[in-house]
């Protein structure tokens, strides 16, 4: 579908009280969500081949049916406490759009949680957090079943790290 058709369908969806579906996953005890239409697959953690001179949050690459896929550790990306990768650790493989077009990337998370349908009117804008990485990559916040889910804009998350600096300062 071209971008004009996409814009028309977004407007129609908004007029019909649209909802979006999100795959949610756990990371350091918090629940995050990504647009389910971006999810290519979910696979158990195995290992990644390290690539020299990559940002700290890039664990390396894997070969996924003939495609070389970069693997990003979201704990490191968000400057969270490290955790040993174990049996429940998974890689969520997503289609990401950026300046260089569409590409496939894997994101290491603690575990996959659920799929939620979230009405557009229930998505609240993220608060201004003073220019942090969260300002860039948090699409919004939604309350689902009495708990807060942080909805990520995966494209902006990847673009924010394009400089290799990770988007955070310590």
Summarize the model shown:
It is built from four helices and ten strands; from the N terminus they run αβββββαβββαββα.
Describe this structure in words.
This protein has 170 residues and is of the alpha+beta class. It has a single domain (19-160), classed as CheA-289, Domain 4 (OB fold (Dihydrolipoamide Acetyltransferase, E2P), Beta Barrel), CATH 2.40.50.180. The protein has helices spanning 3-15, 74-77, 133-137, 154-160; strands at residues 19-27, 30-35, 39-44, 58-64, 67-73, 90-98, 101-109, 111-119, 138-144, 147-152. The strands form two sheets. Strands 8-1-2-10-9 form a five-stranded mixed beta sheet. The protein has a five-stranded mixed beta sheet with strand order 3-6-7-5-4. Strand 1 and strand 2 form a beta hairpin. Mean pLDDT is 84; it is low at 8-15 and 163-170.
Largest sheet: 5 strands, mixed
Main-sheet strand order equals 8-1-2-10-9
Low-confidence stretches: 8-15, 163-170
User: Could you say what the CATH architecture is?
Assistant: Beta Barrel
List the helices and strands and how they pair.
Layout (H helix, E strand, L loop, with lengths): L2 H13 L3 E9 L2 E6 L3 E6 L13 E7 L2 E7 H4 L12 E9 L2 E9 L1 E9 L13 H5 E7 L2 E6 L1 H7 L10
Parallel strand pairs: 2-10, 5-7
Antiparallel strand pairs: 1-2, 1-8, 3-6, 4-5, 6-7, 9-10
